[in-house]
Design a protein that fits this description.
- It is a single chain.
- The chain is an alpha/beta fold and 332 residues long.
- The chain has 3 domains: 2-62, OB fold (Dihydrolipoamide Acetyltransferase, E2P) (Beta Barrel), CATH 2.40.50; 68-228, P-loop containing nucleotide triphosphate hydrolases (Rossmann fold); 249-326, Ribonucleotide Reductase Protein R1, domain 1, CATH 1.10.40.50.
- It has 8 helices and 13 strands.
- It has helices spanning 27-32, 102-114, 131-143, 161-167, 184-192, 249-255, 272-278, 284-329, and strands at residues 2-8, 11-15, 20-25, 45-49, 57-62, 68-72, 80-85, 89-95, 118-124, 150-152, 173-177, 216-219, 225-228.
- The strands form 3 sheets. Strands 10-9-8-11-13-12 form a 6-stranded mixed beta sheet, with helices on both faces.
- Helix 2 crosses helix 8 (284-329).
- The longest helix has 46 residues, at 284-329.
- The chain binds guanosine-5'-triphosphate, magnesium ion and zinc ion.
- Guanosine-5'-triphosphate is lined by residues 124-125, 127-128, 154-156, 180-186, 199-202, 208, 210-212, 230-231.
């Protein structure tokens, strides 16, 4: 049994109990691949046959994933892409200053929730804003109903670093997600204690330069595993409202002419999209792709919103339960 630590096109780097070796998919497995989702990704557990004569190892099996991170491939395609697998906790890193954006945070939350991973939020670069601003950011996240842990952190002042280190349990796998330039790799370097991985300065408006170019799994001294990811330019499918429309711009224009604003473009009378399909102005294929994606997307968003509602209710329950206990034990 081995674990994939990096993927470079066809070749994987895998860590076996004894060493880190290059490995390739067995021909039989290659033959079975039906979509990009079937390709091995960082974090996958695999059965590898060690190289006999110095060549690469052979991957004979990819074990079913317990959790996963995936996104829609950029552009118009309908395909999904695996980002990483078998992650226990995903740290969603948002820079406090220019990067902070509730909408983006929500999209990451949906992505993490979709893959059954526990989310935690890191507000990075707290050194660039005032205490009041930081409090406002945290309030904004809480007010939107997100109950995930929030850890304010600065690689510069060291705020939150010890708390972050304490979060990491041996044997568990974590990943860092977030825009380019928010300080993900710098955080890993701080953890390790030296500049093991490349980082690069951001522009005056905080834009990163996409320094980390491949996902890789790092084994930390205390036994926890951490996956660094490159900042994603495009999150792909996340929200029913806008994720779908990316790459399907013609539908946005057409639906403006539907009779009902919330038209699903399926059975409603006066639907401009269906009319365009009937007239042959829009292909059946494209229409089918769109409705399929829209349904999937709605499903993810719904399950996420549902979960959030439950979390919120559970949070209230905990709070009142705690208060009850406190009241009971208060000296009369
Ligand atoms: N002010 C401030 N700057 C920081 C902090 N952490 C990192 N930086 C700087 O931000 C820049 C980008 O950091 P990286 O660690 O390369 O960012 P990244 O998230 O790994 O970016 P990608 O690899 O492009 O996805 C570097 O110049 C860091 O020195 C911080 O806490 N405060
Ligand atoms: Mg990086
Ligand atoms: Zn319609």
């Amino acid at each position: 049994m081995a674990r994939i630590t990096a993927v470079d096109r066809d070749a994987c780097l895998v860590r076996t109990p004894n060493a880190e070796i290059h490995a390739e998919l067995a021909g039989r497995l290659r033959f079975q691949i039906q979509s990009a989702l079937d390709l091995p990704c960082v974090g996958d557990w695999v059965c590898v046959q060690s190289p006999s004569s110095g060549g690469p190892g052979i991957i004979h099996e990819v074990l079913p994933r317990k959790t996963y991170l995936r996104r829609k491939c950029p552009g118009r395609s309908m395909d999904f892409q695996m980002i990483a697998a078998n992650i226990d906790v995903a740290f969603i890193v948002q820079g406090c200053q220019y990067d902070f954006n509730m909408h983006r945070l929500d999209r990451y939350m949906v992505m993490v929730n979709d893959g059954h991973i526990e989310p935690q939020i890191i507000l990075s670069k707290t050194d660039l804003i005032s205490r009041e601003e930081l409090t406002r950011r945290i309030d904004e996240i809480r007010n939107s109903g997100i109950s995930a842990d929030i850890l304010p952190l600065s690689n510069t002042t060291g705020l939150g670093l010890n708390e972050f280190r304490d979060e990491l349990e041996p044997g568990k796998t974590y990943c860092l997600l977030g825009s380019s330039g928010v300080g993900k790799t710098t955080l890993i370097n701080r953890l390790i204690g030296h500049e093991a991985f490349d980082t690069k300065a951001v522009s005056a408006t905080g834009e990163g330069t996409h320094t980390t170019s491949r996902r890789q799994l790092i084994l930390l001294a205390q036994g926890a595993m951490l996956i660094d990811t490159p900042g994603m330019r495009e999150l792909g499918l996340m929200g029913a409202s806008d994720g779908v429309n990316m790459g399907f711009e013609e539908f946005v224009g057409l639906s403006a002419n539907c009779r009902y604003a919330n038209c699903s473009h399926e059975h409603e009378p006066g639907c401009a999209v269906r009319t365009a399909v009937e007239k042959g102005e829009l292909s059946e294929d494209r229409y089918a792709s769109y409705t399929k994606l829209k349904k999937e997307s709605e499903h993810y968003e719904m399950s996420y919103l549902d979960k959030r509602k439950r979390d919120k209710a559970f949070g209230r329950f905990l709070k009142s339960a705690k208060k009850e206990i406190k009241d009971k034990h208060r000296p009369k």
